[in-house]
Amino acid sequence: MRFRVVLEYDQETESYSAICPELPGCASAGETEDEARRGIEEAIRLYLSPAEIEVSPTAKLIEVTIG
What we know:
alpha+beta
């Protein structure tokens, strides 16, 4: 899967930020552009990883594959 990432340099903090617009709240930062890129890649992986959930006995748990 491909995601768009917005990388931006902040002169005030002298660091880079990285956000993924398609995944609300998925962001990272770093002192270098490369560090911010690696951080957002890890943030996207964590964002998309399955979380532990409790399902009632009457519910079905299914998986959907995209892409």
